[in-house]
Amino acid sequence: MENALLQVLIFWMLTTPHEFAHAWVAMKLGDDTPVLQGRVTLNPLAHVDWMGTVILPLAMSLLGGGFIGWGKPVMTNPAKLRGGFNGMALVAMAGPASNVVFAIALLALAAHTGSTVNGLCITAARLSLFLAIFNMLPIPPLDGSKLLLAARIPMFIYMELGRFGLLLILIAMSATSLGSWMSMWAALGTRSIYHWFAH
Questions:
Q1: Three-state secondary-structure class, residue 99
Q2: I need a surface site. Which of 70, 95, 138, 154 has the fewest CB within 10 A?
Q3: What's the whole-model pTM score?
Q4: What is the pLDDT of residues 10-34, one digit of tens each?
């Protein structure tokens, strides 16, 4: 139970820079929607989705069914974004990119701290890299799905994918080895980056 709670707490902290990155890039591309909704902030409470950030991740951690979760989605208006759907793709990619940057920063800290902080930073970095990989899946509402829009996939196909998106994600994570594959790559990435800083 303690490990599950710690993982959910770390996850919540990781969703904050992720969602902030979406909001900040959208603002820089001319969309004031995230500003008006108070999302251009590093306050964790502004980005929490209680079901996706706390309840579901905790339940899956306790049941050993992998790890699925999300923060409160940042709303954007493609009509206001410079570049339209291409701009939307840039906003979407900012989230996973922030997870990679945050993981690198955590591992740089881990390489120069004591054992307790070291372990927490490595755990958080591994989860951050996992989130970056997970969010690149091209399934709505994940960030990777916005690349489909940038590639001009017909909107009706995107909408149909969106209708069953969460179900597809749950099936992929629970009934296939996809979750294990992503966890393996996150662990390998964490190990490689840590060793780079530790030497």
A1: helix
A2: 154
A3: 0.89
A4: 999 999 999 999 999 999 999 999 9
